[in-house]
Amino acid sequence: MASFQALKQQRARRGAGAASAGQARAAPAPAATPAPADAAPQPACASEEAPVAAQELVAEPDAPEAASTQAFESAATMAQLPACGSRAESTSYRLRGELEVRRTEASGRSIWWAPTSVKSATAGTTLLAVSPHVAVLSSAHLDSRCALCFKTADEAIEALPHTASGSSSPRLQRCSGCRTLHYCSAACQRADWPLHRQECAALVAYAASAASSAKGQTQRVASEPGTSVRALARLLWAGQKKGADWMEPVHNMQSNRGKMDSQQLEPLGTIAARLAFFMGVTLRPDAEPDEERSSAARARLAALGLASSAQLLDFVCQYATNSFTAASSDLSPLGVAVAPEAALLNHSCVPNACVVFPFGPGAREGSLRVVAIREIKPGEEILTSYVDLSDCYAKRRQTLAERYLFACSCAMCKHARRRAPPKAGRAAWLDPREAQWCSRACGGWIASPLTGDETAAPVSASCSKCGAPRAQPDTSAQARQSGEQALERAERFLDTNEPEAAWQTLQRSIRVLSAVMPPSGYPLLALMRCAQTALIELAGSSDASEEKLDEATRLGLAICAGMQAAGGAVFCAAHPARAVAMATLGKLLIADAQGDGSQAQHSCLASPPRLPQAGMERALAGRAMLVQAHEELLGAFGRDTQGGAVGATVRSALQSLDAELSLLAAR
Ligand SMILES: C[S@@+](CC[C@H](N)C(=O)[O-])C[C@H]1O[C@@H](n2cnc3c(N)ncnc32)[C@H](O)[C@@H]1O
Q1: Best substitution site from 347, 350, 380, 396 to test ligand 1's pocket, by max atoms within 8 Å of Cβ?
Q2: What does the pLDDT look like over 383-401, one tens digit per residue?
Q3: Residue 27 pLDDT exceeds 60
Q4: Which residues form the MYND-type domain (predicted)?
Q5: Which residue's CA is the nearest one to ligand 1's atom 27?
Q6: Which residues line ligand 1 (CB under 6 A)?
Q7: Residue 396 Cα, ligand 1 centroid: separation in angstroms?
């Protein structure tokens, strides 16, 4: 049966699903959001998670410029600078094909499926395919992935034609200049050189400065300026080469600077200061009347297409609102991408589209894709999620307010705020993220009390099945909070390649929360996804790999049940995070089809699901899951890409499995 080595590469990370500006923004993280993370941007959207950029703002080691007497303005000074006027154009216009850009008072510009279109876009339709203006590997991956195509050495070898693969060594080559970036081939290095040339020199200067700042300091000083600064610098250097027309959509991206308070601006000011330092701009208004230095700095900024330090800060604010988490084909966050056209997408917690990188975020043309995941009718707005859709209402609201500075008024959020009583003869719809088990163990759900939203109506809940009231006192809020903290710690462990520590961190919270809430509950679903990732990584290296794979499979069953809860109202069929979770489960089932057949001895789940019997029963269950996953992958990553790279791995797994099954049948 299939090996689990391939699975190990497929980290089913949280945040997948937000690929947004900010989702894949950085998650949306997801699939990709202008960070989306669901890995995201989402504007850092595209996937459901918080953008790499945002996380980086808080937790970076000291930078050399902080100690330097040649410092740019301090972050606090930067934050006081007056906001520049928005350069965004105001009219509606045809973006391309069937897509229109329109502006509304409430949410600015956004993309619509043109009312003149003769037909709807169905799930799996690629709405937009663009090459990001820049895509930059995050600092955590600089040593392990190619800076241009984002592949690991093994992935690069696998991608070679079979005849060529024998001759290559599975190692990345380090740039001998900066000693920071790595490449999988001379071709990738050559292709990256026009942009890396300036970056290479800047990295060398930065590392030297870091080394001298580190002398005598106890704190760690980073030897490179961080993902956001590298991305912003590349954008400015590319702009110098490609010209004003290429940069115009970047400068037209929305800046929320005018809405930010000084606390929100300070981390962005730090990035602006570090960016200036990295690019060799030294500007010290406090050193006036040092006119010479000041005007030299102005000239350097002008050469980069920026009129002033205030505009530099605006540029960073635009990036924070509009960058996407650049995710792998299976939604693992790898870096950030800036794609101004896709960053025009607005947010909804009930998205009808997702930002994904079906073949990874590397140099490939059209690598960032906006794909419809539900039917979109002519004249309908195209909306992605900037947040992780498994987050509860309060958490989504907090992320959107802090990072994107707006309050969502989608149908899901309205429902959460209103807590509407059921219409006569109909049961109230209960958000599966906010549900708890009935304390009478009848199998019914009770709404959790909403936390963190003072505008929401108070909740008086009773069981959906037996009508019993919620137990008093309700202890779930505390368990949820510990779960959130465990998740944060575990994700950091995974980022630093410590899956065992991540797994140890997660088990208790999963046990406690799975006793009180269904698998769709917040933050249980995210905890289980993180734990599954840790276990898959551990299974590849540990002696007890069979046990780990069994537990990862049990978690997979719970994750898929959680994602399909409430008829897919949260994760609809063809949502990338759901499709990838199904593919992972299918592969786990067939990888472990020869397992020892033991049922849960030490599961972290309070009521572990029964695993199909090892052997034929498990293989057939895996096959059924892979078939379903494949259908959803076509919808999630685009029918034109045949479900992207994950679709291809599922087809190949099915082929091998069918060959094995027919051999068995012939015996
Ligand atoms: C990535 S930009 C999206 C494009 C943006 N509307 C524009 O005009 O360029 C993200 C910003 O758009 C606005 N936005 C996005 N979705 C929204 C929504 N559902 N309601 C209100 N504002 C929204 C917020 O100001 C947010 O910070």
Answers
A1: 347
A2: 999 999 999 999 999 999 9
A3: no
A4: 146-200
A5: 404
A6: 21, 34, 41, 43, 106-110, 254, 256, 321-322, 343-344, 346-348, 404-406, 408
A7: 15
Alpha-carbon distance of 231 to 319, in angstroms, equals 9
Which residue has the CA at smallest separation from atom 7 of ligand 1? 109
The domains found in the chain, sorted by start residue, are: 13-57+73-142+224-391 (2.170.270.10), 393-474 (no CATH), 485-511+519-666 (1.25.40)
Rounded to two decimals, what is the model's pTM?
0.87
Do the Cβ atoms of 51 and 29 come closer than 8 Å?
Answer: yes
Q: What value does the CA radius of gyration of the chain take, rounded to a whole number of Å? A: 25
pLDDT at 578 over 60: yes
Q: Could you tell me how many residues make up the chain?
A: 667
Tell me, in angstroms, the distance from the centre of ligand 1 to residue 107's CA: 5
pLDDT in tens, 488-542: 999 999 988 899 999 999 999 999 999 999 999 999 999 999 999 999 999 988 7
Specify the pLDDT at position 477: 81
Say if CB 147 and CB 234 are below 8 A apart: no
Q: Atom 8 (ligand 1): residue with closest C-alpha?
A: 109
Q: How far is the CA of 491 from the centre of ligand 1 (A)?
A: 28
Determine the Cα–Cα distance for residues 183 and 146; give it in Å rounded to an integer. 4
Interstrand relation of 14-17 and 108-113 (parallel, antiparallel or unpaired): unpaired
φ and ψ of 445, to 5 deg? -110, 150
Query: Is residue 450 very low, low, confident or very high in pLDDT (cuts 50, 70, 90)?
Result: low
Distances (CA, A) of 389 to 31, 135, 189, 525: 11, 24, 37, 10
Torsional sign, CA 136, 142, 146, 150: negative
The mean pLDDT value for 427-439 works out to: 84
Pairing of strands 93-96, 99-104: antiparallel
Ligand 1: residue whose CA is nearest its atom 20:
107
Positive or negative CA dihedral for 45, 46, 49, 54?
A: negative
- Give the per-residue pLDDT at 42: 39
Which atom, in ligand 1's list, is nearest to the CA of 34? 1
By the 10 Å C-beta count (0-12 exposed, 13-18 middle, 19+ buried), 59 is classed as exposed
